[in-house]
Amino acid sequence: MPVATPKQFKAMLEAAQEGGYAYPAINCSNLVTINAALKAFADQKSDGIIQFSTGAGQFASGLNHKNMVAGVITLAEATHRLAEQYDVLVALNTDHCRPQVAAEFLDPLIEATAKRRAKGENNLFQNHMLDASELPLDENMAISKEYLAKCAENEIVLEVEAGCVGGEEDGAAGTEDMPEEHLYTTPEDMMAVYEALNEIGPFTFAATFGNVHGHYKPGAVKLRPEILKQGQDAVIAKYGQDAEFDLVFHGGSGSTLEEIRETLDYGVVKMNVDTDTQYAFTRPVVEHMFKNYDGVLKIDGEIGNKKAYDPRAYLKAAEEGMAARVGEACDDLLSTGKSIGGQV
Q1: CA atoms in the 13 A half-sphere facing the CB of 152
Q2: What are phi and psi of 10, to 5 degrees?
Q3: Which residues are catalytic?
Q4: Which domain covers residue 288, as residue numbers?
Q5: What is the pTM of this model?
């Protein structure tokens, strides 16, 4: 089955909201990580989201160019082809795009989708994220409205963020010394986001509730999922049940399963997974190198072992390790066994 159409992505979001589960959104930067995510989704019979950051685009375009748009388009096109081998739905998203690079990153990607649509083809992307959370809320909403309108013209869902996720993740706006109050989106903020955007087009919302990018031991991050409920309740009380947000959970590493599951009760339909899958990818590579050091290195004039230093040897192990962690995310988010691929 190919990558989800805009209609199918809408159905995915609706199914998750109604079913009380969420999709793992897996950051990928090359073919091996894309294949790991696709394998896990298929094995778990879960639909899911694959996403690319500006940094991933620069990496994928090569050291001589570091062209984030060219790299991301290459990764997206490859995913479209690879996804045809599977019977689950996968949607494509771009992760954190800061406002100062939106014109050079989001605009060309939206145009790439528009060109495909003009030829009767599926969207290149079903979802884009504009992370203007570093701006005051009124400025954030002004640029978010601009890009939501551009996305809506092409049946693309826009992900927005208000409040700040702490830590740092591939150029994301948060910093390690973020003032604590900035880590929690208020009900007033959530109301302002709804009132600014609700009549323009479909969007998802990364509200913050203490989440921090990076990897932390359980308990180190002070999550307050109830903030999501308070904001949802306030908006629904004023505008009705149809105003319920499709929420996104960023910075989930180190969260307890209880905390993750609680957010599902409050409308989270997408959870970003990056730090944990990076480690799951790299750990088997390290093990391969330690176990085969005299094969991957030509020690004391020896010739090494081609089977050991062939990149496929350790990258297959990396793919398996990452796929296992993505599968765990599907279980945690209750999306396992709930693919709607054969229904829409």
Answers
A1: 14
A2: -60, -45
A3: 95
A4: 6-292+323-332
A5: 0.93
